[in-house]
Amino acid sequence: MNIITSLDTIEAPTVIALGNFDGIHRGHRRVIDPVLASRKGIPTVVSFHPHPREWFSGQRRTLLTPLDEKSEYLAAIGVQQLVMLSFNKKLASLSPKDFVEHVLIQQLNAQWISVGQNFKFGYQRSGNTNDLKAIAASHHVHVNIAELQRCGDERISSSGIREALSQGDVERANQLLGRPYQLRGTVSYGQQLGRTLGFPTANLNIQEHKFCPRHGVYYVSVGCSDESTISQPIPGVMNIGTRPTVDGTQTTIEVHLLDWKGDIYDQTLQVQLKRFLRPEQKFESLSALKEQITADCNVVRSLIHSSSVI
Hints:
Blueprint: E1 2-4, E2 14-18, H1 26-37, E3 42-49, H2 52-57, H3 67-77, E4 81-86, H4 89-92, H5 96-107, E5 110-116, H6 129-137, E6 142-146, E7 150-151, E8 154-155, H7 158-167, H8 170-177, E9 182-188, H9 193-196, E10 202-206, E11 216-224, E12 234-241, E13 252-257, E14 268-278, H10 286-304
Parallel strand pairs: 1-4, 2-3, 2-5, 3-4, 5-6
Antiparallel strand pairs: 7-8, 9-10, 9-14, 10-13, 11-12, 11-14, 12-13
């Protein structure tokens, strides 16, 4: 899939799904899937960088799906182009009419457009879906309005997923996403404390702008970019936190792979969250910590054999 940052290199004509799409969750798929079914042009997702909320607030925003993850998910479902529009003062000041005509119609050569029901655009978010349909219709471009998707009584949203992950509610987050939430990072050398306790861990360095869930211990499933090293997903126990038992101060992400031995330094791991086990806590001794890690591993083993967790 092509990642386009300069509109001079875009392949056209396009059929576009328009939005931020952080998470590529089940609600986003309702916007994107109709584009994949259209035959009027190249299936294209149009998003923004930085996230508009980050640009307006001036504060860095962590993402459920940084660009590499977003592009991977989109490519897997059949999107051929990801256009990252530079969100800046010029773009933010465009009127709804100018945004549609100058960016979507002229520059992207959009033949068909899909957005969510709550989509807002243009200067001060003054344009809504009715405005988009009216402006596009004057250029004979159809606009698909995807209804908001719900999970029970809850509207599926990126903010809802963030809230669930912040609370350690992994099952809810995964249900809203439509897949397990994933952390991806390179394994580096740590203090090797886990090895001295009999539970060697992979110290995972994730991207700085990746959204990190609640501190604590998780049941996870671990894959590796090098399939010759890990050919099938391996269950594991992951700790996110500062390691208060040894007076740590920096947040670390450490993963223990159950019943597995090997060298994975410098490898890229994909860690899928299955269940939150417990909050991080400070133990009176390393011996007490070791007992708790043993108990955590036993809980995971019981979950693996339980029909309630796959």
